[in-house]
Amino acid sequence: MTGTLRPVLLIARREFASRVRGRAFVVGTVVVLVLLGVYAAVIATIASGDDTARVGVTGPAIALTGPLERAAPTEGLELTVVPQPDVATGEAAVRAGDLDALIGGEPARPRVYVESEPDAQTERVIVDATSSVARDGFLVARGVDPAALDAAVAESGPVIVAAEPPDPQAGQRLGLGLAGAFLLFFSIQTYGAMVAQGVVEEKASRVVEIVLSSVRPWQLLLGKVLGLGAVGLLQLVVLGGAGLAVAGAAGILVTAAGLVSTLVWVVVWYLLGFALYATVFAAAGSLVSRQEDTQSVLSPVTITVLLGFVVGFNLLTYDQRGTPITVLSLLPPFSPLFMPARIALGVAPAGQIVLALVLTIAFTAGVLALGGRIYANSVLRTGARVSLREALGRSRG
């Protein structure tokens, strides 16, 4: 057994080393990492942009200090109220950029001085504060205690009883699920195509004839799948780790709930999915001998996967528990893409996970057997494209 697997491991190591050291892998990974860094910087800039304001108050409008400070948190604004000695001083501070606005005059209908136009959040806070002052004045004039009215209103209202309480981490789970589905799709498509291109390159250069003088076709096929699968897994881990770091730095991912289990499932389904698709791509690539013909044999596979991904991605966004996405996540060609996402969302029962695993493993075994036969019958045939009937004939290797 060791002697049988040794060529497989040698081929896998060669494929891994040549791809990882290649310019395409390094440049592609660095470009994506740079884009993630730029995205993090943009998010950080937006997050720290307009959520703070400095507002000056002067004259009778100083009475608005308390209402302004109470209204600001409801609008998501960090507000600093700065008393000003007079209107002229406050207006000069606005023109100098030290204040975003100056409020003066009567509290119920103040005069707001700004450089150009008020920020939408700041304007809403001022409106809330002046409305509060006007209401309190109206109530006091009629002998009603505003605090007592507020207390009575606070104790009223409906009591919501939910059969299924909302998940406070639903947004994070959805983000992890969609990100995992996209990374798996990207990696399988990219490195599955590399397997096919590598097969065609070796056929065109006749290198495969030399290699197959020492190893059997299935050993060469398995070595390629394992080697390029390891490359894809490495890039998946690097990009996934960087994405999680960016999400944490941007405040999008604030807890680690379900994170470890999601990552484990992504890796498990990636390995199954890559074994499945890489074998299909390799078998398809072995049917042709020229790079310009490669796309013609890969198109049916890539279009099928792309259509399934687009449909499933939209279903995950709008209906994670529906029958369509459930069925799609159980079908072996698409289980590696969508079952880890449904697991991350917490909507996949254990029975469905086990069923999807069993179906995918069985389907992958069948694809490996069929793909290996096609590969063995086609990889040494150069020139014209090999028909599927010829490729499925009795193996000579």
Features:
397 residues; mainly alpha; D-Maltodextrin-Binding Protein, domain 2; 2 domains; four-stranded mixed sheet; 15 helices; 68% helix; 5% strand; ABC2_TM; ABC-type transporter activity
Q: What's the helix count?
A: 15
Main β-sheet description: 4 strands, mixed
Beta-strand residue percentage:
under 5%
The Rg value, from CA coordinates, equals 32 Å
Keywords: Membrane, Transmembrane, Transmembrane helix
GO molecular function, one term: ABC-type transporter activity
GO cellular component, one term: membrane
Main location: membrane
Report on this model:
The structure is a single chain. With 397 residues, the protein is mainly α. The protein has 2 domains: 53-148, 3-Layer(aba) Sandwich (D-Maltodextrin-Binding Protein, domain 2), CATH 3.40.190; 170-391, no CATH class. It has helices spanning 2-20, 23-47, 65-71, 87-96, 120-141, 146-155, 170-205, 207-211, 217-249, 259-285, 294-318, 323-330, 335-345, 350-378, 388-391; strands at residues 52-57, 78-83, 101-104, 111-113. A 4-stranded mixed sheet has the order 2-1-3-4, with helices on both faces. A hairpin with a 6-residue loop joins strand 3 (101-104) and strand 4. Helix 2 (23-47) runs parallel beside helix 9 (217-249) and helix 7 runs antiparallel to helix 13. The chain is elongated and about 100 Å long. The mean pLDDT is 79.
